[in-house]
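User: Last request for today: this protein with magnesium ion, please.
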Amino acid sequence: MCLDIDDTLIDFSYASKRALSLLIGRADMWPLWERITDWHVARVVAGEIDYAVMHQRRTQCFLAEMGVVMDPEDVARFECRRKEVLRGSWRLFHDVLPCLEWLRAADVRIAAVTNASGAHQRTKLADLGLSRFFDHIAIAGEVGAAKPDAVMFHSVCAVLDCDPCEAAHVGDKLHTDAVGARDAGLEGVWLDRDGGDAEVPEGVHVIGGLDELPQLLVSEFARIGVPAQR
Ligand SMILES: [Mg+2]
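Assistant: Here's the final one, the structure of the complex with magnesium ion:
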């Protein structure tokens, strides 16, 4: 069982919004921050820049859009402070621990699969006491590929010693997580916590919370190795 981290296990959007609004003293700039982040993450995924450069440039670009011109040292200080506040704002969704405990009890091997950067993601999982649940933590920057690239999913299956058809991946991003996993031959599960009305592509499963995952595993994914009777 592969699980995305940000906005799947950890309420990343809440923490990021909180950190940004505390630093700039206003709460209405999140859409701009998200837009600028998406542009810069696309450049990381394309292999043009690494995450450290991305964080600096994203923040510089965001401040410039707000009309604030800072020299690189001040941008670095702002970014450093933002990460400190962010780290104090992590919280798990309420359904994460019961789900991970259920998977462990059912003897399912578990991987965290993230497109974000290494040290940062491991710190988050450790800070929240989640490291112990995972057999493997797959980080895009270390694998050299990122979701939705099949290479990312297949590398995880290789480590977990299973065929893609014996694995499932759950994440909050419909295309990056669920469609990417489906196209790589895994079961793709979209975690739609907001319950929107997006059209769901064929072959993609949808759950509204991680509390629905055990039932899906038992009823639909018997080949993943979850005992039907518990
Ligand atoms: Mg996510």
